[in-house]
Specification:
The protein is built from one helix and five strands. With about 130 residues, it is mainly beta. It has one domain: Ribbon (Cystine Knot Cytokines, subunit B). The strands form two sheets. A three-stranded mixed β-sheet has the order 1-2-5, with no helix packed on it. The protein has a two-stranded antiparallel ribbon with strand order 3-4. Strand 1 and strand 2 form a beta hairpin. The chain is elongated, with a radius of gyration of 21 Å. The model has no long low-confidence stretch (mean pLDDT about 75).
C-alpha cells in the first residue's frame, strides 16, 4: 500500500466524522388538547441529519467504547411556550416545546429526546388548525 493511499484513507475517515450532516432543521409540531377547540401548528427547529455510526461484525471481540450508535441530537436548546386557542377556563392553554439552537452527533438522551423512530404518523391534527409562528 502506498503512503499516499494510507494518508488519504486516514484523512477520509477523520473528515467523515467531523463532516456529519447533523444540523437544526425546520419542523412543524401539531399540538392539541382534548378540551380545546383548536389544534396548534407550531413552527420550530429540531435536530435532524446523518451521523457516522460504527457497527462491527466482531462485537464480542471489541470493547463497548469501540462501538458507537450516534444520533443527531441537541447540543444547545431552549424552550418556548405557546398558547393553544379555544381552551375552556379550567384547562391550562399552554404548551412548552424545545427549539434546537445547535446540534451534535452523540448518544440519544431519553430525558429530552424520543430515541425510537416510529413508522406510525402521529404528528397531525384532528381539529381545526391555528398557525403559531414563534
Amino acid at each position: 500500500m502506498s503512503p499516499f493511499f494510507v494518508m488519504s484513507l486516514l484523512f477520509g475517515l477523520t473528515f467523515s466524522q467531523t463532516a456529519s450532516l447533523c444540523a437544526p432543521s425546520e419542523y412543524i409540531i401539531h399540538v392539541e388538547k382534548r378540551e380545546c377547540a383548536y389544534c396548534l401548528a407550531i413552527n420550530t427547529t429540531i435536530c435532524a441529519g446523518f451521523c457516522m455510526t460504527r457497527d462491527s461484525n466482531g462485537k464480542k471481540l471489541l470493547l463497548k467504547s469501540a462501538l458507537s450508535q450516534n444520533v443527531c441530537t441537541y447540543k444547545e436548546m431552549l424552550y418556548q411556550t405557546a398558547l393553544i386557542p379555544g381552551c375552556p377556563h379550567h384547562t391550562p392553554p399552554y404548551y412548552s416545546y424545545p427549539v434546537a439552537v445547535s446540534c451534535k452527533c452523540g448518544k440519544c438522551n431519553t430525558d429530552y429526546s424520543d430515541c425510537v423512530q416510529e413508522k406510525v404518523r402521529t404528528n397531525y391534527c384532528t381539529k381545526p388548525r391555528k398557525l403559531c409562528n414563534m
